[in-house]
Design goal:
Layout lengths: L2 E4 L2 E5 L2 E5 L4 E4 L11 H13 L18 H11 L4 H18 L6 E5 L2 H19 L11 E5 L7 H7 L2 E5 L1 E2 L4 E2 L1 H4 L7 E7 L11 H15 L5 E5 L3 H7 L12 E7 L11 E5 L14 H39 L3 E3 L8 E6 L4 H13 L6 E5 L5 E8 L6 H31 L3 H15 L2 E2 L2 E2 L2
Parallel strand pairs: 6-7, 6-10, 10-11, 11-12
Antiparallel strand pairs: 1-4, 2-3, 5-13, 8-9, 12-13, 14-15, 15-17, 16-17, 18-19
């Protein structure tokens, strides 16, 4: 009968990390139809432990989505779901948009939410395109194709919109030194037909933030000189909550007049379900109509978290996660073998590789960590010289407390020691495989070919 291992579970409370460690055990999975009725509690226990708790999210260091729940939230969702009227949805929507208005320093914004990032991109793109068309009502647009300037790493997200509405995508090469958008490169990629420029908070794979304030200054200067009106859209899907609560000094949001819209995910350290994506715009009636009942559960969870955590709660939460990331980063650097690639400001993520070694060493390290139960994705990063390098990305997950940090660092050091031992064994094995007579013959042949003169003659 097949079995799965039950791992210890961790959860995150509003006040800090809470760890519920239970000993791992082997739990058999039932196969086929049950022979007789079973109590609800027994069925729940079997299914939840067999299917849900076998996934140890604490050891999955790849996801940038973070969600959190507690019994009170679940009970509230069940009660509100019984009344999925448009009035309830509208009330929750406006309450959440009001919270975002305070977070992102806006006087007033219009907003809506969707269940997928692609739908959010379609809403934003349509709004930017409509705004561009309205600004050129008195200009002949025949034969003119609008364009959208985006950073090369995020261009794929906008391909569907561009193909649907006939917009040309202008990928802007990333700054290979900072691994983010280079605002100076934008000058060559925009014109009077540019409907907008997209900046990203949380570029993958490094998690670095685009310099939105610098980008705004560049575009504002171009707009004033040329008489254009090119707006900025900020893709803060993963970095919106981080920037608002962990980097309050960073100016990137609606404090900049040129920022026309932004998108943010409730799961991007907002601790809400991953199927909730927000679109916020300055202008009225541009973010779409009231969403349908499919987003009701996410709306309840988002509003609940805004009230449950509050500003100080989110600040403390992000500070704890950032402290964990700093601890791990210092431990990585202390090994003397790993190079950290991140630059602040960025997500609470760490990108690193085996320094002064071929890509195979980084891949081998990922495999060795996977054998110990840790999953870190392997990404490709292009450096300033144009060469591709393999790196590992580590994102701090929900519940990654001191015990998890010590366990990860211990397993990482063991993996590095095993890797070093393997390298030494290979070198020793290569020398042992060569027969001494073969070495002498090779030396003699080399000397003969070079015609070494010894004691007045040639030695062969």
């Amino acid at each position: 009968m097949p079995t799965r291992r039950i791992h210890s579970q961790h959860s995150l409370s509003a006040g800090g990390f809470v760890h519920n460690d239970e000993p791992a055990e082997e739990r058999p999975l039932a196969t086929g139809l049950a022979a007789k009725p079973t109590t609800a509690a027994a069925v729940y226990d079997e299914i939840s432990q067999s299917l849900c708790l076998t996934y140890d999210g604490v050891r999955d260091l790849s996801s940038v989505g973070h969600s959190w729940t507690e019994p009170e939230m679940e009970r509230l969702i069940r009660e509100v779901s019984r009344s999925s009227s448009s009035d309830v949805i509208e009330t929750l929507l406006q309450s959440c948009v009001g919270s975002f208005t305070q977070m992102f320093h806006a006087d007033a914004v219009e907003g809506t939410c969707t269940t997928s990032p692609s739908e959010a991109v379609q809403l934003v793109g349509h709004q930017l395109l409509r705004r561009w068309r309205e600004g050129r009502e008195n200009v002949d647009r025949s034969g003119v194709r609008p364009n959208l300037a985006v950073g090369a790493p995020s261009a794929k997200l906008w391909q569907s919109f561009a193909g649907t509405f006939g917009v040309e995508l202008l990928p802007i090469p990333a700054d290979t030194a900072r691994h983010c958008l280079n605002p100076q490169q934008v000058r060559r990629h925009i014109d009077e037909n540019t409907i907008g420029v997209v900046g990203v908070l949380g570029n993958l794979p490094t998690g670095n933030f685009d310099p939105i304030c610098e980008l705004h200054d560049v575009i504002d200067g171009i707009n004033q000189r040329r008489g254009w009106n090119v707006p900025i859209h900020v893709d803060a899907t993963t970095g919106g909550f981080v920037a608002a609560f962990a980097h309050p000094e960073l100016v990137w949001d609606f404090r900049l007049p040129g920022v026309q819209s932004m998108q943010v995910s409730g799961s991007g350290y907002g601790m809400t379900a991953p199927n909730l994506h927000w679109v916020l715009c300055r202008e009225a009636d541009v973010a779409g109509s009231v969403p349908d009942a499919s987003v009701l559960c996410g709306l309840v969870a988002q509003f609940y978290n805004f009230q449950r955590f509050g500003r100080s709660g989110y600040v403390r939460l992000l500070a704890e996660i950032r402290d964990v990331a700093n601890t791990i980063e210092r431990s990585l650097q202390a090994t003397g073998r790993l190079e950290v690639m991140n630059q602040s400001p960025c997500l609470p993520a760490i990108c690193f590789r085996v320094a002064d070694a071929p890509c195979a060493c980084t891949l081998d390290l990922a495999v060795r960590l996977r054998e110990r139960g840790w999953y870190l994705p392997v990404e490709t990063l292009v450096d300033a010289g144009g060469a591709s390098r393999r790196i590992l990305r580590l994102v701090i997950p929900d519940g990654f407390g001191p015990d998890s940090v010590r366990s990860f660092i211990r397993d990482l050091r063991c993996a590095l020691r095993d890797q070093e031992q393997m390298t030494r064994d290979r070198r020793s094995s290569a020398l042992q495989r060569v027969h001494p007579q073969t070495i002498r013959r090779s030396v003699a042949n080399a000397l003969a070919r070079s015609a070494v003169f010894v004691a007045g003659g040639f030695w062969t």
